[in-house]
Amino acid sequence: MAHPKRQHSKQRSRKRRTHQKLSAVGKLSPDGNPMGFSHRVCPTTGFYKGEQVLEVKQKTKEESN
Asked: What is the pLDDT of residue 32?
């Protein structure tokens, strides 16, 4: 295994790690809701893999107040 003669600076290591970041989820779910995980049930519509699995109650203005 390679063994450096001198220690790399902290700055050099951190510059290398700047590209190892997670990207944002930009995928549309099958039912058309943006930014949803494909492996989770959508909390607003109740769809999972294109099928309705949860009944989501629509809130009225009276219930929200």
From this structure: 57
pLDDT in tens, 6-53: 888 999 888 888 877 766 655 555 555 555 666 788 777 888 878 888
Backbone angles phi, psi at 51, to 5 degrees: -120, 145
> Letter for the amino acid at 12?
R
DSSP, residue by residue, 6-26? SPPPHHHHHHHHTT--PPP--
Token match 């909390």: residue? 43
Q: Where in 8-57 does DSSP place strands (E)?
A: 47-48, 51-52
Alpha-carbon gap, residue 46 to 55, rounded angstroms? 6
Domain ranges of the chain: 25-49
